[in-house]
């Protein structure tokens, strides 16, 4: 089984970082594009994901690990492509959390906060 694992350091406490992740409605959509990756000589199929929030001094380390079933000769190229995208999106998440700008549209993403549920 192949996997990628990317991390980002966020200058906010764990509780605040997790709250932002849970409230951002658009961010999890990036995972949709990572469920199946096909290149001419490689195919990756999403298997599992693990997201961790770990205290790091006064900040938080956010780590995303995605496991894939992989077939083909260009697996390394496909994994590098996915790893770059995950790292870019984690960096965008850090920017949104640290700058407090949930409307940020950097890198083509647009974030909106979920409305609180009153159910």
Quick take:
Helices cover 29% and strands 35% of the residues. The chain is α+β, with helices and mostly antiparallel strands and 119 residues long. The chain has one domain (2-108): Alpha-D-Glucose-1,6-Bisphosphate, Chain A, domain 4 (2-Layer Sandwich), CATH 3.30.530.
Structure description:
The protein has 119 residues and is α+β, with helices and mostly antiparallel strands. The chain has one domain: START domain (Alpha-D-Glucose-1,6-Bisphosphate, Chain A, domain 4). The protein has helices at residues 14-23, 75-99; strands at residues 2-10, 36-39, 42-56, 59-72. It has a four-stranded antiparallel β-sheet with strand order 1-4-3-2. The protein is elongated and about 45 Å long. The termini are far apart.
